[in-house]
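Sample 3 of the quickstart, ligand MTE:
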Amino acid sequence: MSRERSAPATRRGFLKAGLAAGGAVATGGAARAAAGDPAITEIQPWMQELGPGVDEFPYGMPSPYESHVRRRNVEWLTADPVSSINFTPIHELDGIITPNGVCFERHHAGAAQVDPAKHRLMINGLVDKPLVFTMKDLMRFPRENHVYFCECAANSGMEWRGAQLNGAQFTHGMIHNVMYTGIPLRLLLEEAGVKTNGKWVMPEGADASGMTRSVPMEKAMDDCLVAFKMNGEALRVEQGYPLRLVVPGWEGNMWVKWLRRLEVGDEPWHHREETSKYTDLMADGKARRFTWEMDAKSVITNPSPQAPLTHGKGRTVLTGIAWSGRGTIPRVDVTIDGGKNWHEARMSGPSLSKSMHRFYFEFEWDGTPLLLQSRAHDSTGYVQPTKDELRKIRGENSIYHNNGIQTWYINEKGEAENVEIS
Ligand SMILES: Nc1nc2c(c(=O)[nH]1)N[C@H]1C(S)=C(S)[C@@H](COP(=O)(O)O)O[C@H]1N2
Ligand SMILES: [Mo]
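Result:
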């Protein structure tokens, strides 16, 4: 097909379609066609040459035009990248599933490079029959598939005392949401036979940090999984390959990666991660402890500081994510005027317990500054608090478990900034 022959016809077709649709002017469609958009009239290189054949990339990667969709860290947060954290680019994603390659990473001693043939899972302590499983042994247990969010208790921790980091990725990106394939922990514990005084389980990681936490037996027997796949493929090295504990709805620190041992005991171990870390220091100097469940939370991912409005006034799509460690999110409210008027957002996609939910709010932007907020309601009736309400109860010393409402300020140019409304 030649350019001379096809281009004018295409232009006329576009004009007609634009008039028929009526709304096309708002998004620039008809105007662009009328101006002879070279993206339409010129023959592009990819129309003239053959692309790579099958097998050129046996394991596919995103388009090079998507290279900005990546994890990022905040260098000043930690002294060294092996005991550090990076953040999921939530402002670049949609739907509810986090692609494996951009799931945030939190390591206390770097990502252990484990050979699955040499990996073992031991169950010992207060059990009738101590057991050791190879990966092959584990593949013979019944497995289940569940979508769960994993949120580090420190997510939004830098925002306790005021708005600080400019980007949803940095304020709320210590979270990922994937489908796990794993064995119910209950089945493995039942195989070993928990003694009547076995009330706690201690998962231990095979990385150099030897990560350990105390998990109450009721939770271990309820919905925990010993997972080996995420989004259908083997766990990524960063996420604990070949085995990780999944503790649905509870803080990410308990989701021990590179899982090598489960010890059953009669009381909690009071290890570092449940004493000096992952506890909430209150105003009176006492610490809240064993605050495992992640409270309902939401954030608008677009627009946000890394994803400004660049299209000017008119048709605008606002979207974000919401989740609760206690169940589903039946409702999210959104305001674009700093809380004067609230609107019920439109939920879209699966509503699964202890999983991320996606919400949208479409509106006509009049070009004036906006104050955007979202407020999640969970299936227990709990409503996400403001940051001030949270500070009233918990003081200002905390780092962990900040689920307060986030505010983005949008100026006339559509640029977004992290702010707080007092
Ligand atoms: N073995 C081991 N497990 C671990 C950690 C670790 O450093 N070592 N970090 C924990 C913390 S603090 C969090 S928030 C989650 C993060 O999981 P991710 O790296 O898959 O995002 O893993 C947890 N499990
Ligand atoms: Mo964490």
